[in-house]
Design a protein that fits this description.
Strand 3 and strand 4 form a beta hairpin. This protein has about 425 residues and is an alpha+beta fold. Helix content is about 50%, strand content about 20%. The model has no long low-confidence stretch (mean pLDDT about 85). It has 2 domains: about 5-50 and about 280-425, no CATH class; about 50-275, no CATH class. It is built from 14 helices and 14 strands. Strands 1, 2, 3, 4, 5, 6, 7, 8, 9, 10, 11 and 12 form a 12-stranded mixed beta sheet that branches. A two-stranded antiparallel ribbon has the order 13-14.
């Protein structure tokens, strides 16, 4: 006897009894989808901003008996990058300035910068295109007078696109130096990533009084974030055959510890984006764990509700169970009948919850959070950008269906053990 059509019929016939449970499951899925979408979206935006800040998903630095990282054989490292068997969105070749005196000035106002980044506009065009430019445009490939700054810095300086900005710092030999550049574009970011200015690599090297082609760090923008560990391992192995190379670094603290060794021979280091973001990702992970723990608790309560409801259903349908057993249905089929009904309940709750979750995420993504500067680290153009990974959606669906089926198991097992004769006598 096929129990699937019977299970579908019974589920439809008892929908009034299931209505409250269906709503509870849909609410659980709604909250799960909301948390998954927001947290995944925040993580995605954070990775985009961090990759621009840290020269890609996998970066290469050079340490030796000198103050800052530097890479001398740029072409050899680029050759390793070009041989990568994974899809990439571009390479980074950069000069950096991150001393405390890095500043921008305009109209008598000054704004300190965490970092001045000198890069090749053309080489990193794909990464710069993800900037939330709300005024101006990206500089042309050969523009050595242009600069990009954040909205937070632009507001503090009172500067607009087209204005001249004074960029000041100190040369490698300790002299104060300054350059006048033209503001080409302003991007939306009030987080600590926003206190970063982008200019041409030769221009920044001129400020530091170094050769135009001097390079501090290089990196790769990986198309699939899940490939970064494999990419890092590949780069490390290839570089190791030609240069002295440190082990792959797992954190910024480990990088600083290697840097303090002051090796007499320039030694390269490979660092992943996850290592640079370790503390922030730990915070996101902790928030996610707390949120999902609450959801699991809620699903546990739903399971108790499913169990109680099915206990009543088995009692009400005792005579029906006896009739089916008398007609030849096996005990295992009776158990499967109730478990299948619970599975249909879980699927219906998941579909309804997913629909409500998508609507809620769409509404939330239309709300501007630009006033909340503390949240700008995870915002895109001042809005939350949500993302639902396929594995996450499949996990939510599986979790809800299993919760419903487990909640019904005890009652289904009791139903399968009913004596057909006694069940038919039940009033």
């Amino acid at each position: 006897m096929t129990i699937l059509p019977i299970a579908i019929r019974n589920f439809v016939r008892n929908q009034n009894r299931y209505r409250l449970l269906l709503g509870s499951l849909a609410l659980a899925v709604l909250v799960l989808v909301l948390i998954l979408g927001v947290v995944s979206g925040m993580n995605r935006v954070l990775r985009l901003k961090a990759a621009r800040y840290f020269a890609g998903d996998v970066s290469v630095l050079g340490y030796g008996d000198f103050n800052n990282s530097r890479i001398e054989d740029v072409e050899s490292v680029l050759e390793v990058f070009r041989d990568l068997p994974w899809a990439v969105n571009g390479f980074a070749v950069r000069s950096l300035y991150y001393r405390t005196d890095a500043s921008l000035s305009f109209g008598g106002r000054t704004s300190r910068q965490r970092r001045l980044i000198g890069l090749d506009w053309d080489r990193e065009s794909s990464a710069l295109e993800t900037l939330d430019l709300f005024e101006g445009a990206l500089p042309s490939p050969d523009d050595k007078e242009g600069i990009l700054i954040s909205s937070a810095v632009a507001r503090s300086l009172g500067v607009r696109v087209g204005d001249d900005i004074l960029v000041s710092g100190t040369t490698e030999t300790g002299q104060i130096n300054a350059l006048t550049l033209v503001l080409r574009g302003v991007f939306e970011d009030a987080s600590f990533f926003g206190y970063t200015a982008y200019l041409h690599i030769s221009t920044l090297n001129s400020l530091k009084d170094l050769a135009p082609n001097f390079v501090n760090e290089m990196g790769v923008y990986v198309r699939n974030p899940g490939d970064q560990e494999k990419v890092a391992q590949f780069i490390h192995e290839r570089l190791e055959s030609t240069f002295p190379v440190f082990p792959i670094m797992q954190s910024k603290e480990e990088r600083d510890r290697y840097f303090a060794q002051r090796t007499p021979i320039t030694t390269l280091a490979v660092l992943t984006l996850d290592a640079n973001l370790a503390q922030i990702r730990d915070l996101l992970g902790a928030l996610s764990m707390v949120a999902f723990s609450l959801i699991l608790l809620f699903l546990g309560i739903v399971m108790v509700g499913v169990s109680n409801t099915y206990t009543m259903l088995v009692h009400e349908r005792t005579k029906e169970i006896g009739t089916m057993r008398a007609l030849g249905m096996q005990a295992r089929d009776v158990k499967g009948l109730f478990i299948f009904e619970a599975a249909f309940l879980g699927v219906a709750g998941a579909v309804l919850g997913f629909g409500l979750g998508l609507v809620t995420l769409t509404i939330v993504s239309q709300i501007s959070f630009v006033r909340f500067s503390w949240a700008s680290l995870f915002l895109q153009s001042g809005y939350l950008s949500w993302y639902l990974p396929p594995w996450g959606m499949a996990g939510v669906l599986l979790l809800v269906i299993l919760s419903s089926m487990l909640g019904s198991y005890r009652s289904a097992d009791l139903a399968s053990r009913l004596n057909p004769v006694d069940a038919l006598r039940e009033e």
